Amino acid sequence: MALAKALTVFDVYDRARSGPKMEEKEWDYKVIPQTVGMLKKKYNIKMDKKTIIPTDKELINNLFKAGKELLVECGIYCIDTGRVIKYTEEEVDAAIASAPSRFIYGEGKEAEEVVPRSFSDKKSPLIQGGPTGAPCSEEHFLAIHQSYAQEPLVDTIVDGVLQTIKGHDPVPGSPWEIAAVKSEAIMVRAAQDRAGRSGMGL
């Protein structure tokens, strides 16, 4: 059977405007939990609290099947439109098949090749360091990111966000938000330069 055509950003945008209308609370507290409960029983998924990463192949396969079915059954909720973006199983399979098998993150001597890893892989995982979306003060933003960049174990940076920009709240959709995002990128690059890690993935 031929795979469906991979979806474009335009397809997803159209579905975000035309998908089933639903309250966010209903999707979060009813649709998702009920579907997860059903899939847990269907695929006999049980959590072993002593095992952080499962290595049982049957469990791994069942987790993948359940995850894919969860996506197809529930879709993805779009907060902006209050609608559910739905995908068919064939579209999900096409997206998986078209996903890159490897890519380069960063540049120069700091370039890192990102490749899939199995649970038994001997290759060390890529280490991403940073405040990861956490609010950071203007005063300490640069130093915080430099502290991550100068750690030899850290391969790439996942930056935080500015609490304020020139003392102003970066309200979403405002010019201050744009200024904050630009300042974040400039300061993270400066932090990497200070740590002697220019070119780190960001």
UniProtKB/TrEMBL annotation:
It comes from the Bacteria. Pfam families: MtmB (PF05369). GO terms for molecular function: methyltransferase activity. GO terms for biological process: methylation. Gene3D superfamilies: Monomethylamine methyltransferase MtmB. Keywords: Methyltransferase, Transferase. InterPro entries: MtmB_MeTrfase, MtmB_sf. This is Monomethylamine methyltransferase MtmB. It comes from Pseudobacteroides cellulosolvens ATCC 35603 = DSM 2933.
